[in-house]
Amino acid sequence: MASGAGETEDDVSGAVGVLRRVFGYDAFRGEQQSIIEHVITGGDAVVLMPTGGGKSLCYQIPALVRPGVGVVVSPLIALMQDQVDALRALGVRAGFLNSTQDLEERRLVEAEFLSGELDLLYLAPERLRVEQTLNLLDRGKISLFAIDEAHCVAQWGHDFRPDYLALSMLRERWPEVPRMALTATATEATHREITARLGMENARHFVASFDRPNIQYRIAGKSDPKKQLLELLRTEHAGDAGIVYCLSRASVEKTAEFLVQNGVTALPYHAGLDARMRAEHQARFLREDGVVVVATIAFGMGIDKPDVRFVAHLDLPKSVEGYYQETGRAGRDGQPSTAWLAYGLQDVVQQRKMIDGSDGDDAHRRRLSAHLDAMLALCETVECRRVRLLAYFGQESSACGNCDTCLTPPQTWDGTVPSQKLLSTVVRLQRERKQKFGAGQIVDILMGRKTAKVIQFDHDQLSVFGIGEDLREAEWRGVIRQLLAQRLLAVEGDYGTLVLTEASGEVLRGQREVPMRREPEKAVKAKAAKAAKGRRAVPVDLPEEAVPVFEELRAWRGRTAKEQGVPAYVIFHDATLREIATARPSSLGELGTVNGVGENKLAKYGEQILAVLSEQTVPAAEQEQVQQMAEVAAPAAGRQPGPGQEPMPEEEWDWGGEPPVEEE
């Protein structure tokens, strides 16, 4: 039991006491209480709960209530120190064992485990394949096993870790110890695979709603993704913390450099950087405000930074599961946040080529194709994004009214005739010329462009030359993209040439219609983005008079975190500071009733917080006098733009010498 939590709790009722005294909350959320009670009484559990839903409490509290040490299996070696620091700040006796420690550090933690001086021990899965670690656990008393990020056991999942397959032995070696498998994302198929591979057929299953109502999902047509990203940051997320995902290391480096050139604090993160630099960049992201990390998907799992305001994808994710998990890293504090994706024709071509060239058998490639098809369906839908996203996980929902398709509903149009024209062009090239070309050449032929390449191959002599002059280039690229998404066209070879599929003939023969999505006009989208920005301007549920108090509390938290060398959220989450700023407690007793202020933090920080609040308490008469003086001093005209005023026009932005738009 945590030393900061009082006497040993040995029954279910003790869970509520631990919640209040250690974590500072009065009530559980959602399924938390049912899960905790089930595990405390010795039951196994498979828990599917979204990021920010409070999964960690589901194993932390049972570990504090049950006798012994809770062993947490986690793949997140780089984050274990922060996880342990956060628990120690609450008075919980936590430790970890991983490859970053020297021999003396490991021996100290092992001694604490054997002497019962730990409440929670974090281990990487590979350590449970080492006999020395297994013997250590045999000699101690274990209260439970918590297998975090359990989807890593799914062999065909996006985060597969082979070491997770060995965790089924936990039941055989410690049959009396309850086990928990926890994940923030899983389809029904992955759910079943977790259960089977971990040997948890008799476990009770808890599935929470996967809805993240505070996240606004937006998918934009890709033109110049770096410039589009910068516009998003400058108009909606200036000074915010965020994560930008790119497919390649080169793209990560170029994007981070571009953002830095344009005044954004941006750091690259990918496997090509040495471990020291990756750790440094991750630490800065966690500890500093307003840092943007540009990364491959190697970054983000387990990142417990509550105030990530946006997640942006400059390349198409490979699956809906990956997209959901990555976007879920935004808005863990419940505040409005953005999930933004730039999507275009080249994404589809690139992903199809990667699947065709992937290792594995045909069945494996079919699985990858099915994952991509679901992601493309999400991008091309004319329905609510949230409805489509939740449906993928088997959950029903009504239209959210907040995603891009709800705010600016796209139109549909009959793309049958343009599809026939395009497919006919592919047919003519293959049958009459024995040639295959990519999207660029096909569009040039349709639009009647006599480019050097068109003249070189005599493509201006084809009967289909110029039959598509009624559509703009962007529209033709949209037709190709949607034909690829609907499997009516395919990509072949290293050069991304376009070829017919079995279903193409149905369109050419007039046996199948081809409905297509038409993107809303830019002006309409800009209006929706402006509306979204307005909703995010002020933290939710924070009265106007509490804003300066909240900012002072955040400044105090930043100084304190820097002094202690820990992320700011280890001191207090924003949600707790907002409640303090609104309630303005005047005594330790009142402060102790605020959510997120447990006994340990009250004793450690209570007087400092009250001091900050007392400095912010200004008599009403003095406030009025200050306001009157400010109004007199303010010039009537010629003032510089201030917060909330119109931003600099786009034409005045410094694009940092960005090259012209690249052809997709």
From TrEMBL:
SUPFAM superfamilies: HRDC-like, P-loop containing nucleoside triphosphate hydrolases. Residues 225-376 form the Helicase C-terminal domain. It catalyses: Couples ATP hydrolysis with the unwinding of duplex DNA by translocating in the 3'-5' direction. Residues 623-664 are annotated as: Disordered. It holds the Pfam family RQC. Its cofactor is Mg(2+); Zn(2+). Its EC number is 5.6.2.4. Residues 648-664 have a biased composition (Acidic residues). Keywords: ATP-binding, DNA damage, DNA recombination, DNA repair, DNA-binding, Helicase, Hydrolase, Isomerase, Metal-binding, Nucleotide-binding, Zinc. Belongs to the helicase family. RecQ subfamily. This is DNA helicase RecQ. It comes from Streptomyces paromomycinus (Streptomyces rimosus subsp. paromomycinus).
